[in-house]
Amino acid sequence: MKVHINIIRSQGYVLINLCEEGLLGKKFRENDMVLDVNEKFYGGDLVESDYALGLIDEATVMSIVGSSLVEEAVKKGIVHKDGVREISGVKIAQVYNL
User: Fold this and answer.
1) DSSP 3-state helix, strand, coil percentages of the chain (rounded to 5)?
2) The pTM is what?
3) With 0-12 CB in 10 A as exposed, 13-18 as middle and 19+ as buried, what is 53?
4) Which residues lie closer than 8 Å to 28 by C-beta, 6 or more apart?
5) What are the pLDDT digits (tens) for 73-84?
6) How far apart are CA 56 and CA 79, in angstroms?
7) What is the largest CA-CA distance in the chain?
8) Residues 26-83 pLDDT 10s
9) 22, 46 in Cβ contact below 8 A?
């Protein structure tokens, strides 16, 4: 599966933001929650999901957006199933390596 990856390095932290192809530029709302999959934060190169998720050890924070991508991260043991949230049917997760 192809995913967008945006790596942000700032003040000693590495934020790796991933979203499934097709979700970039969309906004999802549910009750008072908004998920804005914007170009500035999530836009970047299209890469294979295996490669992107393989960068977890380099990330201070990894943000993962997209139901199939989050499920893949759960299967690989990167995300615990209890740490998954859903907004308007789109699964999201964040992983912190602090």
Assistant:
1) 25, 45, 30
2) 0.94
3) buried
4) 34, 35, 37, 87, 88, 89, 90
5) 999 999 999 999
6) 10
7) 35
8) 999 999 999 999 999 999 999 999 999 999 999 999 999 999 999 999 999 999 999 9
9) no
